[in-house]
Write a structure and sequence with these properties.
Layout lengths: L4 H21 L8 H23 L7 H5 L1 H17 L5 H8 L2 H12 L6 H30 L5 H11 L1 H23 L3 H26 L10 H32 L2 H12 L6 H19 L2
Helix pairs in contact: 1-11, 1-12, 2-4, 2-10, 2-11, 4-9, 4-10, 5-7, 5-9, 5-12, 6-9, 6-11, 7-13, 9-11, 10-11
Length: 301
């Protein structure tokens, strides 16, 4: 069975949205190393999947690809580490929409720099998604401020932290957007999807080893898999999302990258259900607008 780029992008979107929710669920605001625990689990899952991919291609892989692909891997992993660190301070429904504007950045870079094309209708859909994500971030920010005002004892502390914490998803958006653009360049000229996927996953596994050494040996912190239930779920969905993502990006990057940014919608919806948060009528409207953009991209492919 052969999937279209749209189906692959939707699968990646769904998986990444769920991974965000599980990672947020498993994040302890008092754990200074929570972001490293998430990276460890992602790297572990990706390392296992890298071996599976190597077996599929009969180990026909040049290990030097890890070094060649490192600039892309570095931007992705650094952006994720920064975003996960922000989980300690931001609601998933606030940070995820802001972070997800990275897809629009990547799509614009591919469109302008690489000279890739899109139809007027696709441009309209991408614009709709982008504006929807920005509006959703604004609405989420306002809603977060309203909630904070209900608890006068925490106004000063949380308002200050909230303002600073928004820098985490913003930094993620910029780094991930550039990383996705570079990934498009590599896939267009230098790498097959399999080579890119394996290179990234092996690099992430190395990050896992380093992070484990740092937490256990240097910082003398405990690490038990039994305590990482939600990170395990998140790691599985994150790895699955990366698998679908690299093939979608290879097929139609200029449109697929912005489309996959709507993983924030999945995160917001499941965050409301699973993490017991609430949606306003304005937020529902914004989600519908973004969904229309997704429908247009899929229907006219």
């Amino acid at each position: 069975m052969e999937f279209t780029w749209f189906t692959l992008a939707i699968l990646a979107t769904f998986c990444w949205g769920l991974s965000d929710v599980f990672f947020k669920k498993g994040t302890d605001p008092n754990d200074r190393y929570g972001h490293l625990r998430i990276l460890i689990m992602i790297g572990l899952m990706m390392g296992i999947h890298a071996v599976i991919e190597l077996i599929k291609i009969n180990w026909q892989y040049d290990i030097k690809n890890v070094i060649t692909y490192f600039p892309v891997s570095f931007l992705y992993i650094l952006s994720m580490a920064i975003d996960f660190y922000g989980y300690r301070y931001l609601l998933i429904s606030v940070g995820s929409p802001v972070a997800s504007t990275s897809g629009a950045i990547a799509g614009i870079l591919s469109f302008k720099v690489l000279g890739k094309t899109m139809s007027n209708l696709q441009l309209f859909a991408v614009t709709l998604i982008t504006l929807g994500l920005i509006l959703l971030a604004i609405l989420e920010r306002k809603e977060s401020e309203r909630e904070k005002l209900k608890n006068s004892e925490q106004i000063d502390k949380k308002n200050k932290m909230g303002a600073v914490a928004l820098l985490f998803p913003i930094a993620y958006s910029l780094l991930d957007g550039v990383g996705t653009f570079l990934d498009d360049v590599y896939l267009s000229k230098h790498f097959t999807p399999e080579e890119a996927l394996i290179s990234f996953e092996l690099t992430f596994f190395i990050v896992t080893i380093i992070s484990l050494f740092y937490i256990i040996v240097i910082k003398k912190q405990g690490y038990k898999l039994v305590n990482e239930k939600y990170n395990i779920y998140g790691g599985l969905f994150e790895t699955a999302g990366q698998f679908f993502y690299v093939y979608a990006l290879n097929s139609n990057s200029v449109v697929a990258a912005p489309l996959m940014s709507v993983d924030s919608i999945v995160a917001v919806i499941f965050g409301r259900i699973y993490l017991k948060e609430k949606l306003t009528r304005e937020q529902y409207f914004t989600i519908i607008v973004i969904s229309i953009g997704v429908f247009i991209l899929g229907f006219y492919e």
